[in-house]
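call fold(seq) -> tokens
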Amino acid sequence: MSFSIDQFRLDGKVAIVTGAGGRGNSIGRAYALGLSKAGAQVVIADIQAEGAQNVCDEIISAGGNAIAVGVDITKPDSVRKMAASAREAFGGVDILVNNAALMAELGYLPASDIPLDQWNRIMDVNLTGALNCVQAIVPLMRERGAGKIVNQVSGGAFPAV
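ret:
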């Protein structure tokens, strides 16, 4: 069985990647660059608007089409603005990559030692943030007739200590 890279083209598709404003070899940046290389128009969404703009500029300089959006995924109003930006710029959304997360911030503490306020912040970002994004984006996907959602988590969430 053979395949062609053309089978994986995403021309005409719109993707949102949360937590995509990272530097270096961040997972969100890699998603955004890969989706763009496959032909998707990409919304680079991150709480660090400057980082999002840097990744956006990288995509545009490589010939892709992207916008940067500052977003706090723990706040439904902020997420709705992100969704509205995607609709305004590209007409809707086909792909949502829920990548934004707080992992390193947790450190390598056993669960019995994690301060409750730190635990709640991590749950707000990693779980509630993903839910906020799904609730804001699924209506846009329905308007286009379909969509794909990628929810990911890092093994860094489960330190072996």
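The first strand starts at residue 14 and ends at 18.
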